[in-house]
Amino acid sequence: MYTPTLRQLEYLVAISETGQFSAAARRCGVSQPALSRQVREVEEGLGVVCFERRRSGTLVTPGGAVVLSHARRVLAESRALSQAAEALGDPLRGRFRLGAIPTIAPYLLPPLLPRIRAALPELELVLIEAKSEELRASLLAGELDAALVALPYPGDGLAEASLVCEPFALAAPEGHPLDVDAPAQIDDALSHPLLLLSQGHCLRDHIIEACQVKDAAAVQATSIVTLMLMVQSGLGATLVPASALHAMQGVKLRAFEAPAPSREIGLWWRPGAARQVAIDRIAALIPPLAEALPPPPPMPGPAPRLKARG
User: Fold this and answer.
1) 8 A C-beta contact, residue 58 and residue 21
2) What are the C-alpha distances in Å from 297 to residues 104, 240, 244, 265?
3) In sequence order, what are the residues at sequence separation of 6 or more whose Cβ sits closer than 8 angstroms to the Cβ of residue 184?
4) Under a CB-based contact definition with an 8 Å cutoff, are residues 58 and 32 in contact?
5) How far apart are CA 147 and CA 99, in angstroms?
6) Which of 2, 23, 136, 191 allows an S-S link to 45, with CB 3.0 to 4.6 Å?
7) What is the pLDDT of residue 216?
8) What is the Cα–Cα distance from 203 to 224, expressed in whole angstroms?
């Protein structure tokens, strides 16, 4: 029975993700002829053609999709084996790959990272910023150890802990009908179309769910910074999470009357993860950030601040 090597499986995955043999070879640090030979050996050994070769790139065949599904699982288990062996020596040492979504990373990572370094000096942090769906896939594939995400969001078998409740504030351009000197109510947010991040960002979904939004302006902003530039330019109003408020300028901010719309911030990880001790230590460092963030700008209503869960 033919059994591909781990390196050969890495080649297959690289081709499927880059769409080109040449790009996969560069990614894997080998020559294209060497990579092509190894792929042909796998295809001949398994009796399955994994890729359609075209001038414009490669396509994964139906049989190749089955092979790749197994390849990814084998590689994930191989990484888990290496991580488990490393953790047996000291779970608080070595590389720790932490993901974060784009609406959290710029605001919570700067105060969090010095605390992680101080509490876990032997941990080598590798940071990855990506959308929730991408972080989930990376965790399930063993490519991340934990991810800082906004909840609720389907984890598909991942373990999760909700650590901080983060309220939203209403942001409107100067001169907008929502530019009034009074606390906001959810009905205010619903009285005009809201600017929201593009599809695929969980912040969009959380705002829609929290306020039952039915009328949202069509914009293609992919970050809170871009969204706020649109608000400043007078395109409309939006909701801003509390952790980002200190960076907001040139807009009218209004706090919501209780109960304010909010989202949860927490961690994802794989159940039974080899780095569980490190994950628990990092999780314990996140709730105190509620008091460490810069205060929000003055605004009508109770100042929105992160609140530790429990």
Assistant:
1) yes
2) 19, 13, 11, 22
3) 169, 170, 178, 254, 255, 256, 257, 300, 301
4) no
5) 4
6) 2
7) 57
8) 10
The CA distance from 58 to 60, in Å, is 7
pTM: 0.70
One domain for residues 179 and 241: yes
CATH code where residue 128 lies: 3.40.190.10
Q: Which amino acid is at 50?
A: C
Q: Are residues 185 and 240 in the same domain?
A: yes
Are residues 185 and 247 located together in one domain of the fold?
A: yes
| HSE toward the beta carbon, residue 176, CA cutoff 13 A | 27
Q: CA torsion 182→184→202→230, rounded to 10°? A: -40
Which regions of the chain are under pLDDT 70?
Answer: 86-89, 213-220, 310
pLDDT of residue 310: 64
Residue 146 near residue 207 (C-beta atoms within 8 A): no
User: What's at 239, amino acid-wise?
Assistant: L
How far apart, in whole angstroms, are the C-alpha atoms of residue 148 and residue 161? 10
What pLDDT sits at residue 190?
80
Domain that holds residue 99: 90-163+263-295+303-308
Please tell me the predicted confidence (pLDDT) of residue 253: 92
Rounded to 5 degrees, what are φ and ψ at 70? -70, -40
Q: In this structure, what CATH number is given to the domain that contains residue 60?
A: 1.10.10.10
